[in-house]
Each structure stands twice: as structure tokens, then as C-alpha cells.
Amino acid sequence: MAKQVIHLATAEWAEVLNCLVQKIQLPEKYRDHALTGNFRGYRDCHIKPDLVLVYKLHDDEIELHHLKTHSELFG
Predict the structure, then answer these.
(1) Which residue positions are annotated as catalytic (predicted)?
(2) What is the tens place of the pLDDT at every residue in 3-62?
(3) For burial by CB atoms within 10 Å, which of 9, 23, 25, 46 has the most?
């Protein structure tokens, strides 16, 4: 199966990363929210309508866990 290439040189990606690094709340358009179940302790936000970033914030670092479509992540 061929891997899908995702181009991330976008204003949205830059804005999300900047907010996370600066510890600023993400704008509402990214639909940022805490996850539950197996992903408890993680958050996700929608960089594009069907491109989801799963991440975890720590005191001094950001763990970028997954960057996939919603269906790839959650079935």
C-alpha cells in the first residue's frame, strides 16, 4: 500500500504549531478537544477538515503523536 504524502507547508500548520509552542489556545476553527478512551491524556485538532493532529502537552515539550485522516485514526 502506498503511503499518502501530506504537504504541511500551510498557514494552518504554522498557526497550530505556533499556538502550541506559545501555549496559546487554538482558534475555534481547529476544533481542539481532549480525547478519551485509549487516547486519554491526548488532545486532537483538525488542521484541515479531514487532517487530524493528535498531540499531548507536557510542561516543557509537545508530543506530536499522529497526523492522519479522521478515519485512519478512529475508524
Answers:
(1) 70 (proton donor)
(2) 555 566 588 999 999 999 999 999 999 999 999 998 999 999 999 888 999 999 999 999
(3) 46
Q: Taking the CA of residue 63 as centre, how many other CA atoms within 13 Å lie in the half-sphere pointing to its CB? A: 9
Name the β-bridge partners of 67: 53
pTM to 2 decimal places: 0.83
Burial tier of 61 (Cβ tally within 10 Å: 0-12, 13-18, 19+): exposed
Here the cell at position 48 is 484541515
d(Cα 4, Cα 35) in Å, to the nearest integer? 25
> What is the set of domains in the chain, with CATH numbers?
11-74 (3.30.2310.20)
Q: Is 3 left (phi over 0), alpha (psi -120 to 50) or beta?
A: beta
